[in-house]
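Comment thread on ticket #2218

A.B. wrote:
> Attaching the input chain for the structure job we discussed in standup.
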Amino acid sequence: MNSIDDLVTLVRDELGLPLTTADADRKLSDLSGWDSVHLLWLLTALERSTGRRISMPDVLEAGTLADIHALATRV
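C.D. wrote:
> Ran it. Output below, let me know if you need it in another format.
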């Protein structure tokens, strides 16, 4: 998981949501078809993809996919 494009592709391919990189800065609640189940799924997929744990409370506070990407790629 290197770029925001990678994250958007993961969400689009695995969840079937028609997102583009332009959607990365939109509020999660404004994404068509998005719900809390998607957030839980994404956290699991990111942990599997990166091989490391990501803080659930931090993800719950994230407002956008870009915020989630920053959490997933934080060193």
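A.B. wrote:
> Thanks. Noting for the ticket: Residues 36-50 form the longest helix (15 residues).
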